[in-house]
User: Fold this.
Amino acid sequence: MTESAVAVTQHFRPEEEKFIQQASDWIRQSEDEYRGILTRFLNPREQYILQTCVNRAKDLVVQFNGVVPHAESQRAFIAPSFYEIELSDFELALLEIKYPVKFTELHHATILGSFMSAGIERAVIGDILSHQDQWQIVVDAKMVTYIQQTVEKIGRVRITLMEQNLDHIPVTDRDDWDEVFLLLSSLRIDTAVSAAFDISRRMAKSLVEQEQVRINWATMLKPDHVIAVGDMVSVRHYGRLQLVMIDGLTKKDKIKTVVNIIRR
Assistant:
């Protein structure tokens, strides 16, 4: 691991070391070859870490794109500062699901599960977008033909995946995020869940232990796990929260935070 990567690692979790090394490799490749480097789809936490790493590099910039504004999963393009980054650099494609609307309903989890079951890696799939009964999926443009040939059913429903033009940004049902100021006694996940959804600490701890809580799409089983800026926390039946900012301590040592919350 490079000296720069080691310095960055000190500010993040041990389990994030592998991604920090990957980010360091992307940055070094862009510097050495003096060209743009395109990443896979990154979750919000990975985007935050990559931005932090690029900020430490000299004469490099990074931009993120997931087709729609504020997309959760986005590809990053790292390039020398003189480079004019364009939409085409991100190699994104949009697939619309054609299915018998009158006879079935689709759901986000079912769609993603069907893609995973068909052997499509999560790294080549961006956000799954919906508007009423219209469903679209952002994917790696190089994978379009393979995905179209491989994914023929969502659950038991036979479907067709039609590529759509990116010139017309799709209309999506926006998640109703609320930006909330919270005072937390700690950044433990059970503490944050308790405060965000107004439930008891015991209930929040139980939800974690019952595998009802995910951080950045990975199930979390440790109630004392500490969340960080950029983390996306999903709580089954309650909603989602994302830690946006830590703004110091109060006189009574409470942590001042800004959190985005969706309540189900």
Remarks:
- The chain has three domains: 3-89, 92-164, 178-263.
- The two ends are 42 Å apart (CA to CA).
- Residues 178-263 form a domain with the Structural Genomics Hypothetical 15.5 Kd Protein In mrcA-pckA Intergenic Region; Chain A fold (CATH 3.10.290.10).
